[in-house]
Amino acid sequence: MFGDPDNGYPIADPDRRVGFRIDASWAAFIDSRRNKRIAFGLGFEDSTGPGDTNFYAHLELPILEAVQLFGTFMRLNSDGIGDVFTGPTIGWWS
């Protein structure tokens, strides 16, 4: 499945990718699920394919009973874990 062409073990199927995805989320409530105080989530995924590393961070803050402030940072199609925070940027944060 993985192969090692440098040492005589060819890759069986070069189009096959293997990888993983990890997601975690947490929220704090007071008395009931309708009374959320803060919530956040993190996610990371990677595979053996090029440009397949993705990361997100999400935050939710209720400011009124019917209004919620939220934001998500996403870095998609990075070249690897080291490129998630140091790779090229687009938009107002570049």
List low-confidence stretches. Answer: none
The portion of residues assigned to helices is: under 10%
Mean pLDDT: 83
Give the H and E element order.
EEEE
Explained architecture:
Helix content is 0%, strand content 47%. Strand 2 and strand 3 form a beta hairpin. The N and C termini lie far apart (39 Å). It has strands at 19-29, 36-47, 53-62, 68-78. It is mostly beta strands. The protein is elongated and about 65 Å long.
Show the helix and strand layout.
Blueprint: E1 19-29, E2 36-47, E3 53-62, E4 68-78
Antiparallel strand pairs: 1-2, 2-3, 3-4
Brief rundown of the structure:
Helices cover 0% and strands 47% of the residues. It has 94 residues and is mainly beta.
Write out key terms for the chains shown.
0% helix; 94 residues; mainly beta; 47% strand; 4-stranded antiparallel sheet
